[in-house]
Amino acid sequence: MKKNNWSKMVQTFSRRSGLYIIFFVSIFLLISILTAVQPAYRFSSDTLSNWTKEMDSAIFYHLITMENRAYKQSFPEGEAEIPQLSGVFLELTSNVKPTDPRSFFGNEIPGFSIFDNQLLMASENDFTHFPIESNPPLEEVLREREAVLTGEDEEETGDAEETEEETEETESEQTTGDRDVVFIYNTHNRESFLPHLPDETDPNSAMHGEINITNVSDRLAEGLKRKGIGTQVDNTDFGELLNERGMGYHQSYEVSRDIVAEAVAGNQEIQYMFDLHRDALRRDKTTQTIEGEDYAKILFVIGTGHPDYERNLKVATELHGLMEEEYPGLSRGVFQKDGSSGNGVYNQDMAENALLIEFGGVDNTMDELYRSADALAEVFSDYYWDAEAVQSDE
């Protein structure tokens, strides 16, 4: 009898020992695979975040209460029940959220996903005016058009040129000297504005080789230089460069990336990098009246398709806050885009403090854009010199 019992115990132990050995060997092999696999195929915090970002946050809170029951007391009345596991499993395996109808149709209806982006900050509680990017054929971008400047626009431009020629001293006692610490360029350099294109009415065709967003870049650079901040402006015609290389307009960031790489390699002093664009939204969404004058609204766009986007997000967030204080309503906010609805990187992985900035829309005028450029130069100079003072104290 004792032999039978002993035999059964040995058999049970042997079976369990075999299971334990298989379990530990499996864990060892899994860890070996995860550490040996190429980085591109490894799990990352970003991957796990994408898997779980649509899950109800209460699920994670319930997991915490399983370890510390004291947290249950903080649940609002009627919300203490743990979500059904069937719903959690559905969300994890299908990205379908039963409480959000968008999750049912977002991947099925063409174009629906562009409205499912993240506007991290907004002015005036407006979370609906997402940026719209024109993407016309390259031949349409390069097509010759008539362009005009109004009297006021010409006067503003002339005043800026006279100021630069006649005044060598800056408005600020602080200066970066001969160091250009800001680099400005325009990936979509031919983006223009309908008020200056008398024969054009289609927002997607608001393109011109001379009267375009590059004028705003020049204006911003002038404002920064007057504040003592050395600024380098790139004047590459990326439309022509695309044409020379036989590439399409959708490949604009590929060619601008080469220019950015050259700039970073050739100037180790660059601390901030701005890529200026104009939105395809209409005037009522891109114009703000401040003290009786119209300004072209500004939007900060952050690409999250690279691991270091948070450093750029921090800069954009702080600039948005400062602009809200000085020019309420001028900033449309901070918009976050990943690769699912655009480029997702926008060359912002190539340097610290890199931003894409949307200036106005297709219906704004140069004088409105110049006011906004001057406002951003003022706000950024305060931000820059404050940051420099902090660094010098450290």
From TrEMBL:
Top-rank taxon of the source lineage equals Bacteria
Q: Does the keyword DNA-binding apply?
A: no
Q: Which UniProt keywords apply?
A: Membrane, Transmembrane, Transmembrane helix
Entry's transmembrane regions: 20-41
Query: What InterPro entries does the database record attribute to this sequence?
Result: Spore_II_P
Residue segments, region Disordered: 149-179
Q: Where is the composition biased (Acidic residues)?
A: 151-172
What Pfam families would the database entry show?
SpoIIP
Q: What is this protein called?
A: Stage II sporulation protein P
Which species is listed as the source? Oceanobacillus aidingensis
